[in-house]
Write a structure and sequence with these properties.
The complex is a heterotetramer. Chain A has 27 helices and seven strands. Chain A is mainly alpha-helical. Chain C contains eleven helices and one strand. The chains are: A mainly alpha, B mainly alpha, C mainly alpha, D mainly alpha.
């Protein structure tokens, strides 16, 4: 294991340094950096898998010459699980990047891009395996820093700069809160080692524990993008190069989930009141719903995906929150179920979100635009990308038989099982959360029907789309890998669930794998098989069989007569792209139904012909959604701060006498105090 | 080690700047001026190494009839003086020559510049190694006199104004400090009798416990306000932004990097004596309180800066405040963090001013809004600016992250000294974190605005390699390196120093 | 698997159910049309007319738009498959369906969603404005329906202590037909009925018989389909309707369903089942004649009501159970 | 000299330090610059006297040197320089002040009280000979400081600064019988250089701003 660990870290580290040293030949640097990253990724996958099933957590530590800081590493199941997630997505990303960064040749120093990419992966890996608070903070900040530099890769664009800065500041605010949490824990134990952090409840008053809970929630929530701390996400993720967006959206925000689980279940050992869980659950539900709703209104494909990250983080938190509530009522097995559901969705989201961002990247690569309204008809020009994107879309819309469906199913189960809880409030609240989840699910479905339908189907809406070509092989391979795992995790959850179970067993102390894998390994069941069960392989088989039945029917009646081609019926006119339903038009009804949330402002200008008011010469339509959180939450803070600073100007008024007066007053006052 | 070698080494601490200063008055060729400068700094650094070794072995070194006293604390400060001084001298090679070439200054004034520069260094070294508080005071006043013309060197209206303000405010402050010294003497007389050694640190430390607390309190207040003016603690900071903005880049680097540090050193020395008789809560609370105020105020001023030199000036107020908090809170952690922070800040800030100097030479403006696309125009300076910027906002892997975290941890675990706030309150930590976030936002908003973006049309892009880039690399690597692995020897020195500060 | 069933039995039962669903669905559609015709004082086409229609469609050569991709031609099969699979999760005439373990009510819902997803894509694929319109409207209706459906089903699931449909039906059936808590059941029933209307595109949500493109939802989506593809889609929607009727019938009034696998029980179950769904079909036909189609943005209110009803059902359950 | 009992000596020292304080008030009240300079010279003279007296009474030689230096530097050299500056800049009187004379005088009175109040607990430790001079020294320092704030002309500020220095010197000599010689020398050197530099500055300011009114020095601000 030590060897594997060394290989992983060394691979990234070398990848971080070497590209900067070799002569500036983009191709060479590209292969070098991403090759090494891929190698380290493979090592990381092995390491994670071994660590997940190892009996004893593997620990090692290197003392540093600095006080408080020790480079301590611990590979318990939780860490290994996230390591596994990071490494697999990292591997796919490095393969994808081999092709993708060719777009940047000549514009951006590839050496820098590659080495930062490695650094980013390295820091993320270290974040999840760090076993010392100080070390954790160090790599955590490094992670933010690397990702920031990657975000501003194309810093000539002003919006990219803005996005980067906004991201950097927000994440630093989050870090400040995490520091606060760790300082609180530090007071309990007097050391920064995670071992000291565990079970602080003896040393803690309730007030301090509540404070720690809240600070941790805000701190990690900022990184995870929980509403209302999500505002940076839709700026930063699209601004980065797509393989980076995939990493940020798929993996980086998961480190925050890791942090939350680590603090609540590991450090606090699950000793918390029910309302902690409820807060998490409620935030999750809100994030999920608002995330998808804002996503629906996005026509920039990457921002759309970014908002979906908010949604999915919300879904994950639903699982974790439910787990926390169950745990606080002592229902260990159900708690384990909730946690497993959350973790499973974490893994799945990492995979299909990365896949989708890869797809978006490919579109960007082929068309050089992110605006969906300029896509269209790409499925015929980019069949591979299209197919992979479709798989991703189906998974994120949680449709069977893909992985997204399984994890959402599990979360539904854990929410439904709320009827075993003593409190009536919770009994009612969890099903409502379930209803919100259902709404979220369907809206996600709509959103990706839009995303796929508008981008890939019908006629091309712009010359970009008309002349698009399929992307090079490495990118396709990267996507294929993830698409395959989407299907695999969807069809064989019984093989995946034991992995999560290892984690929950180490966190909560009850293993429920044997109870979840029911009916001879064919079906998946939440704790009791009587309540519900799901057998995705059988479902898949039945789907195939019935489809075959349909084909049989066709063959039976009409044989296989070839169909003939005709024009689409457009009231007798020739169909032009302008006639097609636009993305904006597609979501119009939703915008109208949920207008209370969007508060849209619509502007319609029409120029009529001179002859008659019934014929418009030109129409101009634009609508904006109220950025509620910026307007009512962030702007006030910013204005207050800058206003305060402005009022402080008078201190530095430039008059020598004033300055002397300061000194004089200070002196006299201090003399009087000293007396 | 031979006593004599140590003596010589100590002599070589003071002699080179003096001789070099006098020589440079006689020389006109800029080339030779630089050579002499480098030689003197080189010898200085070498001597420091020898002395440091001696201190390492013996714990402290006294020389020249107890006029010179060097212990771990002073050697740490000497280390800072040496390193930053060397960096500045290397940087000046490219900086001053270009000024001369562009005819900004006449060659004759160049020699004057070097003379003052050497005097400046001499005064600082003297202040660091002086055994007598009186001599230390004289030396620190001398730094004021030496630098005031360096600040007003460009002879513009603004620089004159800055120089005048600097002169007046600092001289007043310093004379208050003198009153403090007098009081110190006044109290020590009764114990030691009327001997000329009654102001010697060595003597005072032995008898300090018997000194009268009342007088010491007053004395410390005077000394704190006086030297605090030099450090630039709010509300005695007012001269600082103006001076740093108007001074030539290397001078600004020295002021920000070293002079402040030396002033802090003076305060620490006096505190070391005062604490023997007083409860450390009084002095500590004073330091921590003013540190906190400085930190908070500076953070908000950083938020509204449009001038990058002022930006750096306020950031050094901020960091000095932070270090003060560290010393004030005390404890092994706080003190270590404070000293370590001094070292790191010196490096980062001088780096920042080097970058600022290069930018100013190329863009001919100090307005942040008019500086864009450094990555393409001045890649090296952009790198320096980024490193210093990230370091000064305490981001890893740079060392300030570590020291700041140490200080914050110390503050949160022990709180402000009890005499000033009710015990165990967590408000100071929250204030500190909040303000650090504010400063972070303001600082990086400006820095990134300058570094990124497309290059302006009217500026010639490209930066040729010059010797002026050596210090950038030097300091950058040190900052990054110390953040992850502090050399054992340096750590040992810092620990010895903090042990001295905590000894009671 | 259900205890005491051999693999052979299981397969036979499943196939039988599949055949019943496939065979019966056109008749139900025909029946509804007939009822409506009667109410409109027409004689109307024969109940079995839909079979003839389907046959004709199968024989016609389909026309496919030049703008479409493989999605368009694949969709009918996917829709058919997903609907059938969903149907196989619902017990039709025997309460102990072998596929019970394969998926619960959530799976049922999401399988239907799969079909909807692809139909929406197909609607967009042809690039015709009507298709897009249909898709967009379908999506909003679906998204409003889903939460209500989940809540309603959950209210029922609670009473039976399971979310697997066969288990629910089986347990309810064994209670000699006395529903455990009528209050919550009634609420859930009402909610589910509204949901069914919306999901299957009946009046007052959508009008399957309309010829105005601008008012269409489901019909607009499939406007470009012809020949065998249209046949499959139509058939699938028929099956979907039948499945929903089955769900309502068996979950709320499971009387007479075969609780054991004996020829007698099965034959009784089948007849009772046909009677039940026929009854419901008549009911739907009546409703379609009595109500007018709602405006698109009025549908919100209707489905809102459904959601609230379902929630009340849940509340009643907990309150009454204490 | 038998009549010179310690008691009498204390009386004399107190008297001369009182004179120092008096001259301070005079400077505060005085608007004409040259007069200020003269008063400063006078004060320095009193200072030298006190120092000499202390030296004579305590018999510590090096205070004589200090006294002599005071006479040379503060009574002769610096006033000359200042006079020269004033002539060249032809600023005769301070017309506007931040705080007008009566108010300043009142404040100064308050400052003296504060000084006595502050030093009161530590007086008893002092030498019998110089009981009150520490308090007076502090008072002079504070007054000088205050004058720097209340006056606008660079020259007056300079004078006020020197007054502060005098206060310090009084403290050093009277209260502690003089600092170690090396320190004394250093202090004198610094004071001298500071004064000269300030003089040079005033010229430059005159050239740059056409006035030595420090109110004009407020361009550098936020």
């Amino acid at each position: 294991m030590a060897i594997l660990l060394l290989l992983t870290l060394a691979g990234y580290a070398v990848g971080l340094l070497l590209p900067l040293c070799v002569p500036s030949r983009p191709r060479l640097q590209n292969t070098l950096a991403h090759g090494l990253a891929g190698f380290a990724g493979v090592a990381g996958i092995c390491l994670g898998t071994i660590g997940l099933f190892a009996g004893e957590p593997f620990t090692t530590s290197v003392p540093s010459t600095l006080p408080l800081l020790t480079f301590a590493i611990r590979l318990d199941p939780l860490a290994s699980f996230f390591l596994l997630t990071i490494s697999s997505v990292g591997l796919a990303a490095s393969v994808y990047a081999l092709g993708y960064v060719t777009e940047f040749y000549g514009r951006v120093p590839i050496s820098l891009l590659g080495s930062l990419f490695n650094g980013f992966l390295l820091s993320m890996t270290l974040v999840v395996i760090a076993d010392n608070g100080f070390f954790f903070l160090l790599v955590w900040e490094l992670m933010s820093l690397f990702s920031y530099f990657l975000v501003v890769t194309e810093h000539e664009k002003s919006d990219v700069r803005y996005a980067g800065l906004f991201y950097l500041i927000m994440t630093h605010v989050g870090t400040a809160f995490i520091v606060l949490t760790f300082l609180l824990l530090f007071q309990g134990s007097g050391s920064f080692s995670f071992e000291g952090f565990r079970r602080p409840d003896q040393a803690f008053s309730d007030g301090m524990r509540t404070m720690a809970f809240l600070t941790a929630l805000i701190g990690f929530g900022t990184k995870a993008g929980i509403v209302p701390l999500h505002v940076w996400l839709p700026y930063a993720h699209p601004a980065a190069p797509s393989h980076i967006s995939a990493l940020m959206s798929g993996v980086m925000i998961k480190t925050a989930i890791y942090g939350l689980i680590r603090v609540y279940f590991d450090f606090f050992g699950g000793h918390f009141p029910w309302w902690w869980g409820f807060v998490v659950l409620a935030l999750g539900a809100v994030s999920a719903l608002l995330g998808v709703m804002y996503a629906l209104m996005e026509h920039d494909l990457k921002s759309l995906l970014a908002y979906h990250s908010v949604e999915n983080i919300g879904i994950i938190l639903l699982g974790i929150g439910a787990g926390m509530i169950f745990h606080s009522y002592g229902l260990e097995q159900l708690a384990a179920l909730g946690l497993i559901a959350g973790l499973y969705h974490t893994l799945n989201h990492a995979i299909f979100k990365a896949l989708l961002f890869f797809g978006a990247g490919s579109l960007l690569y082929a068309t050089h635009t992110r605006n969906m309204e300029e896509y269209g008809g790409l499925l015929r020009r980019m069949p591979w990308t299209g197919a992979f994107f479709l798989i991703g879309a189906v998974s994120i819309a949680a449709l069977p038989p893909t992985n997204g469906f399984i994890s959402e199913w599990l979360i539904f189960q854990s929410l439904f099982l709320s009827y075993e809880m003593p409190s009536l409030l919770m009994k009612l609240m969890l099903p409502i959360a379930a209803a919100m989840l259902a709404l979220t699910g369907v809206l996600a479905l709509t959103c990706f029907a839009k995303a796929f339908g508008i981008s890939f189907l019908a006629l091309p809406r712009s010359s970009h789309a008309k002349h698009a070509e399929e992307v090079p092989w490495p990118m396709r391979i990267g996507m294929a890998f993830l698409a395959a795992s989407c299907i695999a995790l969807g069809l064989a959850p019984m093989l995946a669930v034991p992995m999560m179970d290892r984690v929950t067993a180490s966190m909560i102390g009850t293993s429920i794998a044997d109870r979840m894998v029911a009916l001879g390994g064919w079906a998946l069941a939440p704790v009791n098989v009587e309540f519900s069960s799901l057998s995705s392989p059988v479902l898949g088989f039945v789907l195939a069989a019935t489809a075959a039945l349909g084909l049989a029917l066709v063959a039976l009646y009409s044989g296989t007569r070839p169909y003939r081609y005709g024009k689409t019926w457009a009231c007798g006119l020739n169909l032009t792209p302008r006639m097609e339903y636009s993305a904006t038009g597609f979501v119009q009804p939703i915008k109208r139904v949920f207008s209370t949330i969007y508060q849209p402002t619509v502007k319609l200008e029409t120029e009529f012909l001179e002859e008659s008011r019934y014929f418009a010469k030109r129409r101009r339509f634009e609508f904006h959604i109220e950025p509620v959180f910026q307007k009512y939450l962030y702007d006030p803070v910013i204005t207050f701060m800058s206003g305060l600073a402005d009022r402080l100007r008078i201190v530095q008024a430039g008059s020598l006498h004033l300055y002397l007066a300061y000194m004089f007053v200070t002196l006299v006052l201090l003399l009087l105090v000293a007396l | 080690m031979m006593e004599s070698t140590v003596m010589i080494a100590v002599g070589l601490l003071l002699l080179p700047p003096l001789t070099a200063g006098c020589l440079s008055l006689l020389i006109n060729s800029s080339r030779w001026l630089h050579v002499i400068n480098l030689i003197s700094i080189g010898t200085l650094v070498g001597a420091e190494a020898v002395v440091a070794r001696a201190v390492f072995l013996q714990g402290s070194v006294t020389a020249f009839a107890e006029i010179v006293y060097i212990d771990a604390l002073s050697s740490v400060i000497l280390f800072i003086i040496g390193t930053v001084g060397l960096a500045c001298s290397l940087y000046m090679r490219s900086y001053m020559d270009e000024q001369v070439a562009r005819g900004v200054i006449a060659p004759k004034r160049l020699s004057l510049f070097f003379f003052l520069f050497h005097m400046f260094i001499l005064a600082m070294v003297l202040a660091t190694v002086a055994n007598s508080l009186g001599v230390q005071w004289v030396a620190i006043e001398a730094t004021t006199l030496a630098t005031t013309f360096l600040i007003a060197f460009w002879r513009r209206r603004e620089s004159l104004e800055a120089g005048w303000k600097y002169l007046i405010l600092c001289s007043v402050g310093i004379s208050l400090a003198l009153f403090g010294v007098v009081l110190m003497y006044y109290s020590s007389l009764r114990v030691l009798g009327d001997v000329s050694s009654a102001l010697n640190i060595t003597q005072l430390q032995q008898v300090a416990a018997q000194l009268d607390p009342h007088i010491l309190k007053l004395a410390f207040v005077f000394l704190f306000v006086g030297y605090g003016t030099k450090v630039g603690l709010v509300p005695m900071h007012s001269w600082l932004p103006d001076a740093y903005t108007e001074a030539p880049a290397p001078v600004a680097a020295m002021l920000a990097g070293v002079l402040e540090t030396v002033a802090v050193y003076a305060i620490l020395r006096c505190r070391g004596i005062a604490d023997q008789a007083l409860s450390p809560d009084f002095t500590g609370g004073l330091l921590a309180l003013f540190g906190l105020i400085s930190f908070a105020l500076a953070a908000f001023f950083i938020l509204l800066q449009h001038n990058y030199k002022r930006l750096f000036a306020y950031s050094s107020i901020e960091h000095m405040g932070l270090a003060m908090v560290g010393f004030g809170v005390g404890g092994p952690l706080g003190t270590f963090g404070g000293l370590f922070h001094l070292v790191n800040h010196a490096f980062a800030k001088s780096l920042a001013f080097f970058a600022a100097g290069n930018i100013h030479r190329r863009f001919k403006t100090v307005e942040i809004d008019q500086v864009r696309g450094l990555t393409t125009v001045l890649p090296w300076s952009a790198l320096a600016l980024l490193i210093s910027g990230l370091a000064l906002t305490a981001l890893p892997p740079f060392a300030l992250f570590t020291s700041e975290m140490q200080i914050i941890t110390a503050l949160s675990s022990s709180g402000l000294p009890d005499e000033w706030t009710q015990p165990g309150t967590r408000i100071p930590v929250v204030i500190l974190l909040l303000c650090s976030v504010v400063a972070f936002a303001g600082f990086l908003y400006r820095i990134t605005g300058m570094v990124w973006g497309p290059a302006p049309k009217d500026v010639v892009p490209g930066e040729r390699w010059s010797v002026g880039h050596v210090p950038i690399i030097l300091l950058g690597t040190m900052l990054a390196g110390f953040g992850l692995a502090l050399p054992a020897s340096l750590r040992h020195f810092v620990e010895m120093a903090s042990a001295l500060l905590l000894s009671r | 698997m259900i205890a005491g069933q051999s693999i052979f039995q299981a397969i036979v039962l499943t196939l039988a159910q599949a055949i019943v669903l496939i065979a019966l669905s056109p008749a139900i559609v025909g029946l509804i049309r007939k009822v409506k015709a009667r109410f409109q004082c027409r004689r109307g086409a024969a109940i079995f007319q839909p079979y003839a229609d389907l046959r004709k469609l199968f024989c016609k050569q389909p026309v496919v738009s030049t703008t479409t991709s493989w999605i368009f031609t694949a969709t009918p099969y996917i829709v058919f498959a997903s609907t059938m699979t969903a149907g196989l999760l619902v017990p039709v005439f025997a309460s102990q369906m072998p596929l019970n373990f394969a998926g619960n009510i959530i799976a049922f819902v999401y399988l239907l969603a799969l079909g909807t997803f692809f139909l929406i894509l197909a609607g967009l694929d042809a690039g015709s404005p009507f298709g897009g319109m249909g898709s967009s409207r379908e999506s909003i209706v679906a998204s409003l329906t889903e939460p209500a459906m989940i809540m309603a089903i959950f209210a029922i699931a609670l009473t039976a202590g399971s979310t697997n449909l066969s288990t629910i039906v089986h347990r309810t059936a064994l209670l000699e037909g006395i529903v455990t808590d009528p209050a919550s059941h009634v609420m859930a029933l009402a909610a589910l009925f509204i949901v069914a209307l919306a999901e299957t595109g009946r009046v007052p949500v959508d009008n399957p018989a309309t010829h105005l493109e601008l008012t269409m939802i489901h019909e607009a989506m499939v406007l470009e389909y012809s020949g065998r593809y249209l046949a499959l889609v139509e058939w699938a929607s028929g099956i979907k309707l039948l499945v929903f009727l089955t769900l309502i019938a068996n979950v709320f009034v499971p009387w007479g369903i075969a609780t054991s696998v004996t020829p007698a029980a099965l034959s009784i179950g089948l007849t009772v089942y046909v009677a039940k769904v026929a009854g419901l079909a008549v009911l739907i036909g009546t409703i379609e004649c009595m109500f007018a189609k709602l405006r698109l943005f009025r549908i919100t209110d209707l489905l809102g009501v459904a959601f609230i009803l379902a929630l009340l059902g849940l509340l009643f359950f907990y309150i009454l159970r204490g | 000299m038998s009549w010179l009992t310690p008691h009498v000596a204390t009386q004399i020292v107190d008297f001369s330090s009182a004179m120092l304080l008096l001259t301070c008030f005079a400077i505060v009240a005085q608007r004409r610059l040259s007069a200020c300079v003269d008063l400063f010279a006078l004060q320095s003279l009193f200072l030298a006297m006190t120092a000499a007296l202390v030296a004579f009474l305590t018999g510590s030689r090096h205070i004589y040197i200090a006294a002599a230096l005071t006479v040379v530097v503060k009574v002769i050299v610096i006033p000359r320089v200042l006079k020269g500056v004033i002539e060249r800049l032809n600023v005769t009187r301070e017309l506007v002040m931040k705080i007008n004379v009566p108010a300043s005088l009142l404040i100064c009175g308050a400052l003296v009280m504060i000084a006595f109040f502050i030093t009161q607990p530590i007086i008893p430790f002092g030498h019998l000979l110089t009981r009150d001079s520490l308090a007076i020294a502090l008072a002079i320092v504070l007054i000088g400081f205050f004058t720097m704030i209340s006056r606008q002309k660079a020259v007056t500020q300079l004078i006020a600064f020197l007054v502060m220095e005098n206060g310090l010197f009084l403290g050093a000599t009277a209260a502690t019988y003089g600092m170690p010689l090396i320190v004394e020398l250093g202090v004198f050197f610094d004071v001298l250089v500071a004064a000269l530099i300030a003089g040079i500055y005033t010229n430059r300011l005159q050239d740059a701003f056409d006035s030595v009114d420090t109110v004009h020095l407020s361009e550098l601000k936020e």
